[in-house]
TrEMBL record:
It is found in: Endoplasmic reticulum. Keywords: Calcium, Endoplasmic reticulum, Glycoprotein, Glycosidase, Hydrolase, Metal-binding. Its EC number is 3.2.1.-. The keyword Metal-binding applies. One of its GO terms (biological process) is carbohydrate metabolic process. The lineage of its organism: Eukaryota, Viridiplantae, Chlorophyta, core chlorophytes, Trebouxiophyceae. It comes from Coccomyxa subellipsoidea (strain C-169). Transmembrane segments: none annotated. This is alpha-1,2-Mannosidase.
Length: 492
């Protein structure tokens, strides 16, 4: 299939899932792709609609976007007696609302009557999430009731990613509203997590207690529970330009490259980063988490494309071996975890494939994308959407299609097949795949942007700031690979 046809197929995959959600899922959070029924998973706020907004715009669905925004402005309220996950609502709902608000503000011709309704919804949601931060440490709890705040008896344990992956969305909310409280709380939480990294390894653990600020789980990795903390320290620097974020990221990246690839486990030779004890660096589990497939993309952003290429090749080989990526598998790529054997349509490997192709122009990444896309099109497509895989060994499907399939998986396939050799101009991608504006200074907001425009996807040179050689820790874990920055595409 020619590249343009694969791009069109990726677009059709998105709209097939989106249209079926509108028909069978809305106003529920998700559509069940096999039984064609609506299902609530995130408090009943039409999360798939919110999560899909900027993908609609990116793929030319301006009419559907306008209709979706009007529906949200008229029908959605966050004044709900619902217990919700702070991290998930931040990256999916808050990120989706803010991204689309900025895009509509910067491109007013798309919806001339738009007057900030999405920002008002985002501000209300942000205010309802703030009670989660009312802990002795300032680390947010994982769960909050949208109407009542934090109920008595709520768990005080949260994950590292849950506490540290709020920087982009809450920071942007502060810039857009002029209220610094959101950004201050997110930054304080990130500083707190970074501040309790191990003095022996420089790593962070998996879960911590928000009251005592002590680690609860001592496993360190770049996988589930930790992954996007690394990502957001780098991207907060790219978005806001604050060197503090770069310093935190650089130190954690160096620690990860040094300690998460123990030679005695054979992981270093294979390029894998695994799970080790926070303080000793001893291997704790033999499994690789599929969520850590974001790492080659992160390495592409900092210019370490050789390391990224090796690791990406391993991930692609794992996909070929198992048919999809199981949630956990061994470093030898021979065994699936006995319990976590499914593939819930995750985007991380496809995201890395897109970013590496954007950074290098290497056609091998287009071929990898072809494999991923053909698998999804041939095996996961069902009557009312795309179904998750319950067990990669049997190919048995599960009647779920999470919102990130439309906000990320299909988006990155579309962008990859658009053959862009750089990244969107003046935007970065959040961990949920939302386009968020790059801001030059603390006074900037996403509402102002001069010549900023919709991201280009198929031709021309586009720019997202990236660091190549400004990270403390090279492929061998040695400190200091030099200063300075290079750019993918034009200067922002």
């Amino acid at each position: 299939m020619r590249l343009c046809l694969r791009r069109d197929e990726a677009r059709e995959m998105f709209f097939f899932g989106f249209d079926n959600y509108l028909k069978h899922g809305l106003p529920k959070d998700e559509v069940r792709p096999i039984s064609c029924r609506g299902h609530d998973s995130q408090g009943g706020i039409a999360i798939t609609l919110i999560d899909s907004l900027d993908t609609l715009l990116l793929m030319g669905g301006e009419r559907q976007l306008v209709e979706a925004v009007r529906w949200l402005e008229q029908n959605i309220s966050f004044d709900l007696d619902k217990r919700v996950h702070v991290f998930e609502l931040t990256i999916r709902a808050l990120g989706g609302l803010l991204s689309t608000h900025v895009l509509l503000t910067r491109n007013a011709a798309i919806m001339p009557e738009y007057s900030g309704g999405l920002l008002r919804l985002a501000t209300d949601l942000g205010d309802r999430l703030l009670p989660a931060f009312e802990t002795p440490s300032g680390i947010p709890l994982s769960w909050v009731n949208l109407r009542k705040g934090v109920p008595a008896g709520e768990t005080r344990v949260t994950c590292t990613a849950c506490a540290g992956t709020l920087l982009l969305e809450l920071g942007l909310l502060s810039r857009l509203t002029g209220n610094p409280v959101y950004e201050h709380k997110a930054l304080h939480a990130a500083r707190q997590v970074y501040g309790i990294r191990s003095t022996a390894t420089g790593l962070v653990g998996n879960t911590l207690n928000a009251d005592s600020l002590n680690w609860e789980r001592l496993d360190a990795s770049i996988g589930a529970g930790v992954d996007s903390f690394y990502e957001y320290l780098l991207k907060a620097y790219l978005q806001f330009g604050d060197e503090e974020y770069l310093n935190m990221f650089s130190n954690l990246y160096a620690a990860a490259m040094r300690h998460l690839r123990p030679a005695d486990a054979g992981w270093a030779a294979r390029g894998w980063l695994g799970e080790v004890h926070l303080h000793s660096g001893v291997v704790m589990q033999p499994w690789i988490s599929s969520l850590s497939a974001f790492w080659p993309g992160l390495q592409a952003l900092i210019g370490q494309t050789d390391d990224a290429a090796l690791l990406h090749g391993n991930w692609t080989a794992a996909w070929k071996t198992f048919g999809w990526l199981p949630e956990l598998f061994d470093a030898g790529v021979t065994q699936r975890h006995p319990l976590q054997r499914g593939y819930p349509l995750r985007p991380e490997l496809i995201e890395s494939t897109y970013l590496l192709h954007a950074a290098t122009g290497d056609g091998a990444y287009l071929e990898a994308g072809r494999l991923f896309q053909s698998t999804l099109a041939e095996h996961n497509r069902q009557k009312c959407g795309f179904a998750s895989v319950a067990d990669v060994a049997t190919g048995a499907l599960e009647d779920t299609m999470e919102s990130f399939f439309l906000s990320e998986t299909t988006k990155y396939l579309y962008l990859l097949n658009s053959n862009a050799t750089a990244l969107p101009d003046h935007y970065i991608f959040s961990t949920e795949g939302h386009l968020l504006p790059v801001l030059a200074s603390p006074g900037d907001s996403g509402d102002v942007g001069g010549e900023c425009r919709l991201p280009k996807t198929s031709e021309g040179r586009q720019g997202e700031r990236a660091i190549a050689g400004g990270v403390e820790g090279d492929a061998e874990g040695n400190e200091g690979v030099g200063g300075g920055r290079t750019l993918i595409g034009d200067p922002w």
